[in-house]
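To illustrate the input format used throughout this study, we show a single complete record. The first block contains the structure-token representation of the backbone; no residue identities are included at this stage. The design step must infer an amino acid for every position from geometry alone.
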């Protein structure tokens, strides 16, 4: 008999996500993804000065404020007709790159890795490496003091990496990753001020000019990070992809084969050439990347707590009008669709659009280029690591292109028109991010954000199509309903972020098991 399992909240992600899965004969048969927090940021921007958009939208999220600040800047640039100077474009790329590195390392090591590594195996480490011995002693002491968060409790799984040498090495990298994230955050502080409430990008450009000293400070950190990403992060991903017990996760967790990238990291002043190109892929047809057109985006709200008047609007004319009484609705997340299709966004989508050699080689070695094409949980992690490397490497080139003494700002960013539309479409660590603005009487008349997790964690749409995370869960093995580890492995591979606002009580469901997991 089918059984519904509810995980609420899914932990080790950002924000508040509830996942319900229906399990039959040991596999997931159906799934529902619900955003249980209401943000309301778009509503409170109405009537504000357009410059406020950037500072307010940075507060959407503590993990990706930089991406929102960047999207808001491009949005205002487009509404005011800014000609972005090269220095400003490059500094925005470098800061966004630093945030990608910080976020990708955070995701793999601190949010996802504990789904695969048996932390208790560290206590059995008997090797001679002094650092790993010290780590073992530290963890044993924490266990004795019953101070085991964030490592325990956890779902038990027979397939955790439990060789003491390998597990301890990987846990050592978990600790090193904290230092790497610090370095990446320091890079942002050099040009933008301290995260998360930074002030360094504004409509028209950036606020802090390149100088010899800040260029050197940035370069030193880029070199350190590049070597760690090559020698540790990429290698750990290859190790994980080679664990035979995880072979099913190469294909399991595929979201349905539709991928979308808006494109990011402008390489010319018109924004036509991008380091991460834009494009759309349908039905896993990865050799046929279609041209992206933002007019093909709509947000469906059939199953979201918003009024019917919000249904199927392009974000340029989007509406955010909550309706808590709506029958059938089960999420505060809208359901963005491209040509009416649910689309996965994020590193896997971007890498499938860009197709770097490293990705194609790895996919070939893992047999993933043989039909039927399906890219599941592990390719999602691998794409994130490969993207992290590509961006870090490219940052060394960008930093050399900075020109001290040349402009960093176009004053047109200050000239607010009486009426204008704008759009700022960028890529954040978790995927395609768009901000749209309509300025009227020099104030914000409408502001709409469609964030990466809006795409990935969306509920069903007006056509009854599930969102990408919902789709990816179908067929995931759950041999023991009391232990749905593979469900959280799949959900976490998307690196979801449900940003924070006012908490609203979720309607009661019947016959559910409620889990709280770390
Ligand atoms: Ni709150 Fe974000 C990113 C944005 S949301 S982390 O990346 O935009 O998915
Ligand atoms: Mg929105």
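Output of the design step:
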């Amino acid at each position: 008999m089918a059984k519904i399992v509810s995980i609420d909240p899914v932990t080790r992600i950002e924000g508040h996500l509830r996942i319900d899965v229906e399990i039959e004969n040991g596999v997931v048969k159906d799934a529902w993804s619900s955003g249980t927090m209401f943000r309301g940021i778009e509503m409170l921007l109405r009537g504000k000065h357009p410059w406020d958009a950037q500072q307010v939208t940075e507060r959407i999220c503590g993990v990706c404020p930089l991406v929102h600040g960047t999207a808001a800047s491009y949005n205002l640039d487009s509404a005011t007709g800014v000609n972005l100077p090269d220095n400003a474009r490059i500094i925005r790329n470098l800061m966004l790159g630093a945030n990608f590195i910080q976020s990708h390392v955070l995701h793999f090591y601190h949010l996802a890795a504990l789904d695969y590594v048996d932390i208790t195996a560290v206590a059995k480490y008997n090797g001679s490496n002094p650092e790993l011995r010290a780590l073992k002693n530290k963890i044993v002491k924490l266990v004795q003091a019953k101070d085991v968060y964030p490592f325990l409790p956890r779902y038990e799984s027979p397939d955790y990496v439990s060789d003491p040498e390998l597990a301890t090495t990987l846990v050592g990298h978990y600790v090193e990753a904290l230092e790497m994230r610090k370095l990446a955050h320091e890079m942002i502080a050099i040009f933008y001020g301290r995260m998360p409430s930074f002030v360094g990008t504004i409509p028209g450009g950036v606020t802090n000019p390149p100088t010899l000293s800040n260029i050197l400070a940035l370069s030193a950190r880029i070199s350190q990070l590049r070597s760690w990403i090559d020698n540790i992060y990429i290698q750990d991903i290859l190790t994980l992809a080679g664990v035979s017990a995880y072979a099913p996760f190469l294909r399991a967790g595929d979201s349905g084969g539709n991928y979308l990238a808006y494109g990011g990291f402008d390489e010319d002043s018109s924004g036509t050439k991008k380091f991460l190109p834009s494009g759309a892929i349908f039905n896993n047809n990865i050799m046929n990347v279609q041209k992206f057109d933002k007019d093909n985006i709509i947000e469906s709200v059939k199953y979201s707590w918003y009024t019917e008047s919000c249904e199927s609007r392009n974000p340029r004319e989007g509406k955010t009008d909550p309706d808590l009484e709506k029958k059938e609705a089960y999420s505060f997340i809208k359901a963005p669709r491209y040509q009416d299709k649910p689309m996965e966004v994020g590193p896997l989508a971007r890498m499938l659009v860009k197709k770097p050699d490293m990705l194609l080689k790895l996919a070939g070695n893992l047999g993933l280029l043989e039909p039927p094409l399906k890219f599941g949980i592990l390719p999602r992690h691998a794409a994130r690591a490969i993207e992290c490397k590509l961006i870090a490497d490219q940052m060394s080139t960008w930093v050399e292109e900075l020109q001290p003494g040349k402009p960093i700002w176009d004053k047109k960013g200050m000239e607010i028109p009486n009426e204008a539309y704008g759009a700022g479409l960028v890529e954040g660590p978790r995927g395609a991010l768009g901000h749209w603005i309509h300025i009227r009487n020099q104030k914000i008349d409408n502001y709409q954000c469609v964030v990466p997790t809006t795409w990935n964690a969306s509920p069903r749409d007006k056509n009854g199509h599930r969102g990408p995370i919902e789709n990816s869960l179908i067929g995931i093995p759950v041999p023991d309903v009391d232990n749905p580890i593979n469900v959280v492995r799949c959900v976490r591979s998307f690196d979801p972020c449900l940003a924070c606002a006012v908490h609203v009580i979720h309607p009661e469901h019947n016959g559910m098991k409620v889990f709280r997991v770390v």
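Structural context for interpreting the output: Confidence is low (pLDDT under 50) at residues 500-518. The CA atoms of residues 242 and 366 lie 9 Å apart.
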